Amino acid sequence: MNMWRTLIANLIIFCGIAASSPAVQTAPPAFELPLLITSAGQSADVSIASMLAKKAELTATLSKLATGKDLENHKTLVLVLGASMKGLGSAGLDTGKEYERIRALLAEAKKKNIPVLCLHLGGEQRRGELTDKMIEEFLPSAKMALIVKSGNKDGLFTKICKEKNIPLVEIEKTLDTVEPLKSIFKK
Prior knowledge:
Blueprint: H1 2-20, E1 31-32, E2 35-40, H2 45-55, E3 60-62, E4 76-81, H3 85-90, H4 95-111, E5 116-120, H5 129-138, E6 144-148, H6 156-164, E7 168-171, H7 178-184, E8 185-186
Parallel strand pairs: 1-8, 2-3, 2-4, 4-5, 5-6, 6-7
């Protein structure tokens, strides 16, 4: 029963966003499997995204430092937006190298016609100057965005998605991601 409430709530949120702006598509796109999950900012949220994909029974590969070569045999790129200085340091990256890696990855995805799904799972606490810059640069490459609602209090996701005609689905909490993920992937 709770699963149905969550699904209905997500559909209402999506339809409300779509109805509030003619610039946002009225139907979410369908993505194909298998998917490649990677981070934009090296936050721990990328591991959470992988766990959520597993709960949604999606065929996925997690590669925190994915490059264009990793797109081979994948039909969707899931980009998890959220910066962590600690995560960047652990990965041996500075912000410049991370931006360079993501730009090259998105260019290769575009070249191979692989759609991008952006996730922001950390909510308000994962936002900050570095994450915001990544959202501003990388979100416009998405075919759809699925985010924890508290991460959009300032409307940054809404603004970019309206401008770029990107469907935006907001969820209350991270675990609520499972049902929308199931619904947007062709199995």
